[in-house]
Structure formats: C-alpha cells, structure tokens
Amino acid sequence: MLRFLTAGESHGPELVAVVEGAPAGFEIDLAKINADLARRQKGYGRGGRMLIEKDEARPVSGIRFGRTLGSPVTFIIVNRDFKNWEKRMSADPRDRGEAKVVTRPRPGHADLAGVLKYNLDDIRDILERASARETTARVAIGSFAKQLLAPFGIDILGYVVSIGATIAKVPADMSIAELRRATEESQVRVADSAAERAIIEEIDGCKKTGDTLGGVVEVVATGLPVGLGSHVQWDRKLDGRIGGALMSLQAAKGVEFGIGFEAARVRGSALHDEIGFDAAERRFTRHSNNSGGTEGGMSTGEPLRVRVAFKPLSTLMQPLKSVDIRTKQEAEGTIERSDVCAIPAAAVIAEAVVAFELAGAFLEKFGGDSLTEIERNYKGYLEQVRNF
Ligand code: EPS
Fold this sequence. Notes:
Elements: E1 3-7, E2 14-20, E3 24-27, H1 30-41, H2 49-52, E4 57-61, E5 63-64, E6 67-69, E7 73-78, H3 111-118, H4 124-130, H5 135-149, E8 155-163, E9 166-167, H6 176-185, H7 193-209, E10 215-222, H8 238-247, E11 252-257, H9 268-271, E12 275-278, E13 283-286, E14 294-295, E15 298-299, E16 304-310, E17 321-323, E18 330-332, H10 343-366, H11 371-386
Antiparallel strand pairs: 1-2, 2-7, 3-6, 4-7, 5-6, 8-9, 8-10, 10-16, 11-16, 12-13, 14-15, 17-18
Bound molecules: ligand EPS.
Ligand EPS is lined by residues 10, 47, 49, 81, 131-133, 136, 313, 315, 336-339.
C-alpha cells in the first residue's frame, strides 16, 4: 500500500514528506520534483512569502543513484523564512516570552475550532499547521508519484477553470500537451488570454479592497488503464479516494467528476456515455466522457476529469468581525501576511494529489516490489483486456 505523511509548520525550520510503499527500481529525477515545487510557487496574486522561499526537495531516504530502493522515501524542504521566525517558532520553552500571541480568530480559518479543540491559547499553534504551506510537501510527494506512473504513459495536468466570476474557455479539441503549454505560460494557469486579463484585473481590484478570491481547478489524467479502483468496497472506489484526497486540501469546498453536479439536472439518456467497439484496435470506446473517466468506482480507460472548488482565502487585509478569545470582546480577525488568490497554485497542488491517488490505485492493481514485476503484471493485464 502506498501511503504518506507530511509534517512541519509554515514558519518552522523544515517541511517533511515521507512516502511508504513505493516499489524499487523507478527512476526519480529530482529536477522534475523541484520544477513542480517551482510551479506551485507561481501565480499572479501570491503574497510576499513566495519571494522569500525557493522550495527545493532534499531526498534523505529511499533513493540511491536516482532510483527507488523500495524503502520509505523522505523529502525535506527548508522554510527559508524560518530565520525570521526562529524565536517565535522555537521548540525551546525558554523562548515562550517571544511568542507574540495571536488571539483574534479569522472567520473561515481553522483558528477558532482549532484552539477550542486542542485547548491552546495562542492561535498561532493552530494556524501554523493549518497553513497551505503544507501543500509544498504534498506537491513533492505528488511529483514523485507522477514518476511512478510515467513509465506506463500516464500523464496528469492541473489547470485553472475559473477565478472569481471569470470562467476560462478551453477549446474542446485541445490535447493535454497543448493545454500544458498554454497554461504553463499563463500567469494564472488558464488557456484563455482574455480570461487571464479579466482575472488579473479582478485580483488587482481585490488587492486594493483587502479582499480575496477563490476559484475552480480541473485535473485531467490520460493513459489510464480500465479497472483502477473497485466497485466491491466503499474505500476502494477510485472516485471516492480521489474526491476525499482533494477535499482534504486547504480551502477546498467541493469536488465534481466529469459533468459533475450538472449530471443531476439532465436525463439519463443525455448523460451516460454510450459504448462502442473499435474492431481494429480491439478495444471498447465511448462516444462521450460525461462520467469524467470513472464508473462504479473504477477507471473506464477514458481521461479522468475532476474539478475542485476552492473558497477565497480567509485572511482578509480588510478583516471581518470576530471575537478576541482572551477578552471575549468584539474584535477584527487577525491580519497575517497572505495571498489575494492562490488558485493557480491550487491547480498544481490538486494535480499532485490526484497523481498520488492514481499511483496508489495503480500499484494496488499491478502489485509487486519492483518496476520489472509491475511491468510484467501491467503488460499481462493489457493483453487480457485486449483478448477479452
Ligand atoms: C503559503 C505560505 C504562506 C501563505 C499561504 C500559502 O506563507 P505566509 O503565511 O508566511 O505568508 O502565503 O498560506 C495561506 C494563505 C494560509 O492561509 O495559510 C504557501 O507556501 O503556499
């Protein structure tokens, strides 16, 4: 079973990512992981923190001479900003007086529920771990997972569908390679330059008024074999696993596959993807992909399409009403340095999360402790499906 843990506070010394269950013999290119970390740092609308950081994953276990060993893989990412927080984030009890205690919870953040649940009197004890900085570790893990899937021709891309009120158009016939080229060049990860201009304008407007913006991102994965995940048990359903993982992202508010909630508003006859058979290639085909690539909790072999809606960030420079947890008097939510909009980064993060879940389901299906063993199982299965 492929699993992972992350650790680390936003302004602590380091972030840590541990992946367990990766088989041996996979080539891991660290430069690709660092390129994904750099993609996560980009995007119009980010705050000052991204000017301080230059996220880089340092492997400290599980990889030797660029190949996985089958043992736990650990990446460490240094928080450069820690040098500005050493006393405030110190593990040493003698530094407690340096804390600058935070007592005004931000509506929408983990602040209030967190201090009540953990019985802590400094909101910083909660916000440090609730911070979306944690997604740096998840992107390193997801990028690693993409390299477990790459030998099998599986390609995954996250991009922005909408920010605030602006919806970006994606030409229906655009390939994943073209979409990658267009969205990588965009400052807000959209494939529509008119929408890009409107979004940048909206971000600028929000910055002026001390407000924030949410949005929707889509992840598409191609090259998946039919039959990842399973209908037989709730926790083995591919869409359930991917949906749950995406909902665990900071600020995520909803997930939909294929045409998503729209499916509830159309007739079954207009929704379901009719089945054909390509005799030359000996494979079943679909006339549409409204399902988003899963049926019965299993991949159909069509591209996986999943969308995540993120709420606007809860740190507002023009704060909302709150209550001081110490005095119980009305107060304004705390102002922390933050972003106006982090949706372009959220697309990279969602891509990483989907990659990890797909890698987990892939390894469960094709098993084995080494790349050689998995390749054998994979090839045998594809042949079995072709000869069905
Ligand atoms: C983030 C780092 C954070 C924020 C942002 C995401 O850095 P800092 O708190 O030092 O500015 O920029 O996190 C939030 C908006 C949040 O609410 O936690 C990052 O690395 O992505």
